[in-house]
Amino acid sequence: MIKTGFFVMLFSLSCLTVPAAATDPKLLLPHRGCYVLSATLHDLDSDLFKLSDVNPALCTYVVYGFSAIQGTQLSLTKSDEENLMICGMMRQVNPALNIFLAVDAGDAGTEKALAELSEAKARGEFVRLTVQQLRAHNADGLVLHTESLSYASANVVALLLQELREKFVEESAASKQSRLALVINVGNAAKTSRLDPQLLTGTADIIQVRSFDYHTPASEPTVTGHNSPLYRPSGPASNSPFTGSIENTFHDWEILGIPRQKLVLTIPLYGQAWRLISPLRYDPGAPAVGEASMRGRYWDVAGKLAFHDICERLPSENLTRVFDSDAMAPYAHDNISRTWVSYDDLESVRIKARWLLEGNYGGVVFWELSLEDFNGTCGMHPMGLLKGVADVFAANAKVLFEDKRMCDQSFCLKRGVGVFALGACNDSYCNCDHGGKAFTVACGPGTVFDSLTLVCNYAASMKACDGTINSKKKI
């Protein structure tokens, strides 16, 4: 009898003390995120952008935005609910597709609502209702934009992130569904982030980096510059206080402790446009007089042009494309209207995708799809930039590009003292000494320069290289 009671007691305790475990969200790597904004959507009979123009096969997740916060819950209109339902139906084409709902924590209206969530009771109610709303609309997670976050809201948002993540885990264990994902959007200036990097790492499944707007007519109207350069540009543009680069931004976030696989690069599907002072001077850093007068067909915003407007005008409206092999970014100029525009195209997005693979980063997210060539009017595949990245990320892709960066005095004066990569999977690197002295150094047999560890590594051990070595010995 004693034994029987003993075993019954043990069995009962074992049943009571084994908690249900949360299941992590099913996120495909590398990410190919696609933003769809409610304000850009039009009726089915329109030739403007609509949800039916989205090709779900080219995305691993779709972000629908933006929801506001009203009281202690997300504010969704009837149209938002219908659009989220249509987004969910995209899983019929791509069953692995995730659908996320976005909230901008830096928006003026949202900041006012966040102030009301400073109380723990209100915040707890918001977290509970957010989970209910996401599940009710068949969404897979929440995206919180924090790049414009004020100091006043930072503490509330930090608490929200912690409590949302905890609730997502708790709800997953109870419902036996995959945990809702938490995605955080951050700015391109890591050192001025309002949020603790350790908090970001501990709560976010994906950290989307705002890797554009490095140089704009609004920030510096008198000098042209690249919107989203992979590397810091050379020449006059490099002296601008507004000039940064994706390479530097990602390095800064890594230094702060963010894991590489959580970092996602945002590709802007629009360009920044200036009006040149002289048509004879059109390099990056050329003198300008503010925003260009050229306007888009659908997107009428001063100083900005959608990619579909740029690619349509290249062959027909005197726009001449130039590729900056230092910044790894294109620009175009028109000597008649004196328009100068920095943008991303098929070549630059493929280079960025390859760079992400080389660095073992998380992937890309496109901002935003109504600005893409969604009808294929530029002679490419519809959504040609998305397809270009998808092709690079494909398991069997061997998409190589010729990196024309040269290890010379100009290269070293721009970067300072140190060792620097000359491109993806190269068997040499550039050693820059004081005074701009440049030395090309060869790696050992079978090795390539790893731009993250700054040493030569075996090509076979670097996933992005796939055993491929690009020689720079001709330099």
Automatic annotation (TrEMBL):
Region spans: Disordered: 218-238
Residue ranges annotated for the GH18 domain, each copy included: 30-396
Organism superkingdom: Eukaryota
Keywords, sorted A to Z: Chitin-binding, Signal
Pfam families in the cross-refs: CBM_14, Glyco_hydro_18
Ranges where the Chitin-binding type-2 domain occurs: 409-467
Entries under SMART domains matching the protein: ChtBD2, Glyco_18
Record flagged with keyword Signal: yes
GO terms of biological process kind: carbohydrate metabolic process; chitin catabolic process
GO cellular component, one term: extracellular region
Protein name: Acidic mammalian chitinase
